[in-house]
Amino acid sequence: MSAVGTSAVRSDGPIKARGQARYTVDVGLPGMLHCVLARSTVAAGRIVRLDVSKARQLPGVHAVITAADAPMHRNGMLIRDQELFASTHVRYEGEPVAAVAAETKAIARRAVELIELELEQMSPVVDLDDAVAAGARLVHPEWQTFSMAIPCERYDNVANELMANPPGVDEAFAQAAHIVTDEYRAGRQYQAYLEPKAVVAEYEAGRYTIHVSHQFPFALRDRFADALGIRSSDVRVVGHHIGGAFGGKLDLGIEPYAALLAKATGRPVKLVQERTEDFITCPSRENAIIRIRSAVDAEGQVLGRDFDVLLDAGAFAGDTPFLVSIALFMANGAYRVGPTRVRARAVYTNTAPTGAFRGVSGTYLVFAVERHLDHIAEVVGVDRMAIRLANVLRNGDPLLNGQRLDDASILGEAFAEIERVAPWAQITAPTTTTDPTVALRGIGVAAALWVTNPLPGEATLRLGEDGTIHLISAANDNGSGAVTMGLRQIAAEEFGLDVNDVITTMPDTDVQGFDGGSQGSRTTHVVGRAVHDSAIELRRKILDVASKHLEADVADLELVAGHVGVRGVPDRRVPLSQIATLARGTVGSLNATASYAPALPAYDPSCASGFIFSTFPNPTYHVHLAEVEVDPVTGNVSIVRYVVAQEVGKAINPVGVYGQIQGGVTQGIGYAIYEGIDIGSDGRYQQRTLASYRLPIAPDIPRVEALLLEHPDPAGPFGAKGIAEPPIVPVAAAIANAISAAVGHQINSLPIRPNDVLDAIEAGRAKLQQ
Amino acid sequence: MDLSLCVNGRQYDVDVESGTSLLDVLRDEIHLTGTKESCVEGECGTCTVLIDGRPHDACLLAAHAMEDTEITTIEGIGTADAMSPLQAAIVGAGGVQCGFCTPGIVVTLTALVAEAPCPTEDEIRMALAGNICRCTGYVQIIDAVLQHTSDLSTCAESAS
Predict the structure, then answer these.
(1) Which of A126, A268, A539, A750 shows a CA-CA span of 20 to 30 A to A16?
(2) Are A196 and B135 in contact (CB < 8 Å)?
(3) Res A430: pLDDT
């Protein structure tokens, strides 16, 4: 193969490195106005008075709109619980109450300051246990009036509840040698993409055009149309380069405000969020509480389990009703466990709505399960690695939805790869020091399986008149390289071309067919397969034209290095450019389109209620090992070694794969030890800027050792599986296990900041002295 | 208030309010949008430019204080036709993903290798401490610099 498996350079690399790539924040249109939003400054309250008259009178202001000027029906991805503007109540700090369009951003800001908002404050619902307690104040007293796009199990402050209650759980506890009970907590994590959310909206002849850097243009189009009560065909979403997203740019966001103002003023309107505004309103990874109770036998085998999750939806459900389903797939991690009862609830609070962040709830669910397994090992008195190897999933084992994993033994291979480069007995050999200033060293290991998002995708291939291939698809490169490396390489391989002879498009929902967005590692696997399928059809058309020109049978033709030739006759060949020209004069331009949707595995629909995400298609397998050094004086943690063994199917671009692993692990390190969002009892974020929210920087991050396992997927293009999302999933688990081992105390909350480390060191020493 | 700035060797005359940041002048008045705005508090480094050859956050600089300096933005690095060898190394090593931090990182590292042509890995990491990259995890960017400088005969000699 000449293109697949090489580290071809991404096509947008040069323009990005030169500052020439245009992101939405760089888009400017003639006559463009600037929008600033007026947002609630409190988490919960009743709107007593909202007066925008002074703002409207400010010179340079073209329009000010509020709930009175917007569609009154509610919208939402799964539950239609959200208003565009707060009308009678505000439900989180940052909820929009009005939007201004003005000649300049400075004028729009001054106008927002002139808006008079009088609120009768209410006591916010913040704590998750309080929110689900009997008699809790309801964030949405009118919840029963909300319609649903997908049915959810709802009551009171619960937006969706998943329940799985198989037989045998209580019997397992009755015969257990040990019962191990733990509670884990995880805080929110901000995507902290460097390009803040931005949009430029136009309204012309009854249609909206939305310029945006969005992961899922078709979902945005449909959510926008639903929110405004218009036809989806009256919306055109035009994608621009995405300055980072990580899940935070998957749902409808600020687009309707710019669009409604564009309609009201007849001018294009641009809205770019300021950093603090973006931070406190972005759908961050949700905070959660995970409670696990395991019935364990004398050898450390888990006979049965109770698994309970509360996850914080914030003021509106967003995609969190989906996420409760993930609990069913993650409750036992990568291990064999007896009958398991699972209850997971997405809970409304008066905080910013949460949402997807790379690895979603998998990050903290794997953290909980793997921490719990270390605790079980300690209670039973067995080695932490031995308990994993004895119970790791194998080929044919079922998940809790009944889905059989026919390739789960890859997990064992991944453990073996880790052992090859980091022999467990050797690296965990105890060191003896009593010097309280010497760094404490610890090793942690964690395993996971993770899903490939199965939403369909479409690709059109067209032979250009100069012999290039135009790859026309709404598949979207969020920075991962899935389009600019992966899809280009797959197309180049199909036609024997140089990758630079494959030209890709940016998303435009008026032009391309449906694509499920840049999410869940799907683009290379799903759209890559669509490219492969359309290539078969286009090759057939090319050979058809060539066969007439070369007066040879199609079966005797081959397509090599941009030419079609007669096999075995080197001088009887014709370049693709000539075939395109011939076709244009006879049959018309040559192109082919294919859609692909992965087959979903069989499962047992009776396994649970409240179940939206019903299967775990195209799983990949992961084992991570972390070595940390803990400074006992400052509580600072250094990640001194990090090893990843990951199943990838086939690495289409090894440099690209490594970049996803190194980048995903880095975000996981941030989640594990640096990035904390503390929410006060007033419902407000206490960290509000990048100065107070500690992101990983270059001196923090080790060079990740990546061990790739390649078991080609027959359904994937050249065997490729989804690779980009999962490197974040086991990281917090591996690091928390390593820190806990270093300090001799079980640490059960994320993030683990220096003060948490010092507390744990103290607790660990106290335990030793007992 | 009138203002004259030397950017990438060219003189620009603009009229902006006193106190306007250099970043706003570059992006909104001169339309050099390669310099990115992200945190506007000097944390992220996406707006890094060179002032007389030294890297600074343009969001923190008052434009009027920059009149007698030479300002270099990302648009002033490389030639009209080609990336600088360092830019090409960063692209080739996988040091670019979403690319929003890339102009600032290129500017920072261009200053680093101008000052210390053969930096160690630790020196590169410290130089990058003021530039946040949310995508790559930094290693491929660091490797690009190491690769770039090891190709220079002077560094090969000093290493041997």
Answers:
(1) A268
(2) no
(3) 76
Spatial CA neighbour of A412 closest among A389, A383, A386, A396: A389
Closest approach of chain A CAs to the CA of B118, in angstroms?
18
Reported as a pLDDT band with limits 50, 70 and 90, residue B21 is very high
Binary contact (B102, A9; C-beta < 8 A): no
Query: Residue B158: pLDDT above 70?
Result: no
**ipTM for this model:** 0.98
Specify the pTM: 0.98
Strand-pair partners of A23: A241
Interface probe for B, chosen from A11, A18, A276 (most Cβ of B below 10 Å), is: A18
pLDDT of residue A433: 66
The pLDDT of residue B160 is 45
Instruction: Quote the strand ranges of A80-157, DSSP E.
Output: 89-90, 96-102, 116-121
How far away is chain B from the Cα of A27, in angstroms, using its nearest Cα?
A: 10
Q: How many residues does chain A have?
A: 770
Does A71 sit behind a cis peptide bond, omega within 30 degrees of 0 on the bond before it?
no
- Cβ atoms of residues A290 and A365 within 8 Å: yes
* CA distances for A574 relative to A194, A354, A494, A760, B114, angstroms: 48, 56, 17, 72, 50
Confidence tier at B156 by pLDDT (50, 70, 90): low
What type of residue is A700?
D
| β pairing state of A749-750 and A563-566 | unpaired
Which H helix or E strand runs over A293?
strand A288-296
CATH number at residue B8: 3.10.20.30
Does B112 lie in the same domain as B138? yes
Mutate one of B39, B98, B122 to test the A interface: name it (highest A CB count within 10 A): B98
Burial of A98 (0-12, 13-18, 19+ CB in 10 A): buried
| Residues in CB range of A548: below 8 A, 6 or more apart | none
Identity (one letter) of the amino acid at A307?
F
Residues A524, A356, A364, A405, Cα dihedral to 10°: -40
Per-residue pLDDT at B152: 77
Look-up of token digits 């087959």: A599
- Asked if A197 contacts A207 with a C-beta cutoff of 8 angstroms, the reply is no
pLDDT tens profile A680-724: 999 999 999 999 999 999 999 999 999 999 999 999 999 999 999
Q: Which of B47, B76, B105 is the last residue of a domain?
A: B76
Q: Which residues pair with A723 in a beta bridge?
A: none
Q: What pLDDT score does B150 carry?
A: 87
Looking at the fold, whether B57 and B6 belong to one and the same domain comes out as yes
- The three-state secondary structure class of A414 is helix
How many cross-chain Cβ pairs, A to B, lie less than 8 Å apart?
168
Q: Which of B76, B105, B139 is the last residue of a domain?
A: B76
Look up tokens 């453990």; give the residue.
A415
Domains of chain A listed by start with CATH number: 24-122+194-244+249-281 (3.90.1170.50), 288-452+604-769 (3.30.365.10), 454-596 (3.30.365.10)
Structure tokens at A109: 């800001």
Predicted local confidence at residue A476, as pLDDT: 93
pLDDT score at B59:
98
Q: Which residues of chain A have a pLDDT value below 50?
A: none
Does B67 share its domain with B115? Answer: no
Same domain, B115 and B72: no
Same domain as B144, residue B112: yes
Residues A229 and A71 sit within 8 Å (Cβ to Cβ): yes
Q: How far apart are CA A228 and CA A237, in angstroms?
A: 15
Whether B61 and B98 share a structural domain: no
Structure tokens at A480: 């991962």
Residue A267: CB partners within 8 Å, gap ≥ 6? Answer: A31, A32, A33, A62, A101
Q: How many domains does chain B have?
A: 2
Q: Identify the domain containing residue B89 by its residue range.
A: 85-159
In the structure encoding, which two tokens stand for residue A336, read together? Answer: 């064999």
Distance from the A161 Cα atom to the nearest Cα atom in chain B, whole angstroms: 33
